[in-house]
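Q: Can someone sanity-check these two? First one:
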Amino acid sequence: MKLDNKWISLEGQLKGAWEKQGRDFKPLLNVRDADPDYLREVAQVKRLLEWWSADDEFREAAAEDCKAAAAKIGVDVDAEECRLLWDRDFALEQVNSKIAFPRIALRYRMWCSEKYLSRETIRIEGAAPSNPRQAAWRERQLARVLGQLGSGAHASIVHAPFAVELSEGCSVGCWFCGVSAEKRKSDFLYSDENARLWQGCLRALLDVVGPAACEGFLYWATDPLDNPDYEKFALDSARILGKFPQTTTAQAHKHIERVRKLLKLSRANGGLVDRFSILSLGIFKTIVGAFTPEELLYTELVTQNMEATSMQSNSGRARKSERIKRKAEFNGYEKSQWEEVPGTIACVSGYLINMVQKTVRLITPVPCDDRWPNGYWVFEEGRFTDAESFRELIMGMVDRHMPISLRAMRPVRFRRDVRYTRTEEGGLIRSYGSTTRVPAGGGYEPICEALIKGGYTAGQIALKVEQSEGIPAYAVMKIMNDFFSLGLIDEEPPAPEPTVVPGLAIETPEPAMAALAVA
């Protein structure tokens, strides 16, 4: 896959501004020696907006007198020049009046654009595996997620090739945990034996996934700072895979000096942007009191506190909870804006690895529902004992679950969320987030009707359409394979998640309606 024209255009605009207006606009994300005055100004604006996002009292004060509100929190920028960054109506007035945006606001927006462009580049290109089967499988998951979650959620999911849990469980216990983390039990410590196993697993990931392995990260239903040796594991990852893994923690306020060193370590070893999850307004104030705006320019503060403008995903532990209902009421949301919106926080299409239990699961994001309350499918789960058995396990998952094309003898149907409607011009294949138009004729109508009904193999559909429409069976198979590539064909594994038997790789039964091939 390649970046689409929108992102290519944004990339050109950024480079053009940096080259032609270098005195006013400078890059920050991939720069190790950024202009300190420029960096400081952008960091101050970021701090101002963090306060606006986190604190309802600050928002009220800013609405009355944004300069006085900014001065009270110690932010040293002209807040009035930044107002359009949080006040949408004011920004529209500026646009309609054709008033030029202040330079300070443009600098901050360019910084955000850098980060968005970087995320999209990673999502489309950087995290794409070299293995053709895994790359094709991942592209299908990207297309499927667009249909199931819509463009907004789709754009924010990187589909990283793997995530590693260095602990068993999590000590934090967030009420909104989208993957329903269990209580912390133990950690995978950096002993000589464990270090050898870890390094061997990293090399196996690099061999199987390719350079995209550098986009994996070291947490899931865990908090990185629970593991006292997290930094050692992360440095091994940087050394072997080429990049310090992105860190998200909800415990930065408990480990200020450790985190200060961690952020420097990340930047020095290829890390780009890290994240702190902010659980309360008190924690937010502790964080902004302990770190300067400049220290946190490359760290996103994900404000999860009740007073914040953000809204938790209706997934995992938060799903159907009273607290998420209260948060929605605080933000003035209707049910259609949160409860009826499909949600997940899963961001891996690949391997979920637990080093304590020595397990691997093959997963991909999916909207939370009663079958998949934690927002990801599990195709298979297995155990490993050493680096070689780890390599065999993940390679076997590619062979068993990542076909290139449909096999004629397997049952095939559209995903369960897909709907098909006939039109005069042909037909519409609809889901929550996307619509695919198909032409009239060419066998599309009987093919789509058979795929909606289900109960047929791909070969049966091909022969049936050949007989009724005179379309060659190979052409019918091509149409169905095109649908397969678009993520429209059902690949959903059985639920609930499989049970792991020690010492064995457990392959889940094949989905009753998935047309998978061993190609």
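And here is the second, same format, sequence then tokens:
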Amino acid sequence: MAVLPVVLFHAGFETFSGGFIGVDVFFVISGYLITSIIVAEKEAGTFSLVGFYERRARRILPALFLTMACCIPFAWLWLLPREMEAFSRSLVAVSLFVSNILFANEIGYFDTAAELKPLLHTWSLAVEEQYYVLFPLFMMFMWRFARHWLVVALAVVALGSLTAALWGAAKKPEAAFFLLSTRGWELAIGAFIALGRVDDRRADMSASMKQLGSVAGFGLILYSVFAYSKETPFPSVYALAPTVGAALIIVFASASTWVGRLLATRPFVGIGLISYSAYLAHQPLFAFARIKLSSEPGFLAMLALTFASFALAVISWRYVETPYRTNRKINARRVFGTAIVGSVLFFSVGIAGYQTKGFVSRFDLMTAITSNIALADGARRCFGIYDIQKSEKWLCHVGADGEQASFFVYGDSHAVALFNVFDEAARATGTAGAFTGTSGCAPFLGVHALREDQSRKNCHLLNERVFAYVRDHKIRDVYLIARWTYYTDGGYTGKNFSYLGASPDDLRDIDISRGAFLKGLKETVAAYLSIGTRVHIVSQVPQQRMDPEPIYRGALVQGKVDRGLLRDLSISLRVHKELQEFVESAFSQYPDVDRISFDELLCDDIACMVGDDHGSYYFDDDHLSIYGAELLRDRIEAVLSD
């Protein structure tokens, strides 16, 4: 049952917007089963650590190795060098059971780029594997030296993990989603049920109690699947609904309850049998389909791929999982030998891919075309850092060494894309400046937040800190850079809407978002002009309809970069102007503000090009790459020389 919502969520079916909670349900079930096995064997005097690890290896590794092996040829054929390098890192991480740590440091689970990672889903297996290593050792120690304190010790660990999850969801949501330290409490819920001898006590429960408890549990899980979404902070208190729901089903569901009978039907039993293989199969299928098509497959295509996932799961379960798990002729030595050989093999392939930067020799064209799809990283030491609004290391100095800063560059992630060229242009003109910013924060005073997650980032406090610095250091010029339309109109399809106006009551109202934008713009311009600082607003660079990598992937596979293809897939000048109409009109109301536009450098009369035959101008669909930003250097030098 737990695998269904996960697969449907990854397929992009919006009805199942909270389907990711299937993993949480699985964690509870796993904690219950593993603890039950260990306790039963400890009481019988038959528990063996080697035997435990052998069973886990039989259960997990054959299908996992098959999935990894099947991914490699498709990755070789379809992934660009930078993508192949990332895939190679994931091969290494999966082999070492640390893919959750890798993905926690690479990308957020709900980011669009995550959908293109074939092995993203192995993060939950890594959590399980780390749990399998640590939990039996914990149980052995407590059983021998402090058995009466076992539940108390487990409660302390679970409480610590839950605390970490609550803190992480608020402060480090990307990392918190993936780590054992923030997921361990979910496994512990299952362990508590096993230690409570629920199986022995269920017979003493009344029929109405079992019925009510199991229905409540099933309802909590269904609620989570349909009510949660990518915007739900997770794991946090919200994770209690699916995990408590799973616990209630384990405790109360039986053959006499409605939920118990439903889960005992042949379809649910069948899905349960193949659930592990289905979980392994679905993400690579979906990811490679999106990569190959260079866009999101349609509803029917994703539905077909969903059925294909379960069809492949049946084959894997029948011919890989079951034989390896049940064949006693495959002894422990052979199991561990296969595990070591397989892990070393995939580790080696991953290292080779990483060392060769994604096997760049697969393509004959210049590697500069793909290596240039990179974002300036010089600002990372002072951009988007934790608690930037109060951190001591909140800004960088750019330009000529030893010179007093005369300008300040401030903005969201679009400012990062221009960090290198501002630094180079300042050095060339003998000037110096300061730089700071954080992702998703509009550089406006007077508005608490323009986007929902800004309130958690305390963007308003950072805006006030920048203003105070500019005022106290008598900075002559401030350059405000942002993806302006993200805060007023979203993208070309409007799907980026996630706004918060001046108060939490103003959620998701485009008129209020625009009103907050106008308010913030007015107060920001007035504040800076009042202290004698010149305000320069950098217009948003053209936003493309798609990332450059799929465009160049097709060209590389064909053996040439066709400028006509690049033009056809680039955003038209007309559409770009239409998206910018509101914000540009707002900016035009302030004649004392210098407006800097790069449209004439990035667009012709027809289109705003995504790149040329030497490389991509873009890192993704809206941030300039290092190569693209260099096109603006002369213009920025001229501005700084003024």
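A (reply): Looked at the second one. Residues 49-78 form the longest helix (30 residues). The chain has two domains: 3-359, 378-641.
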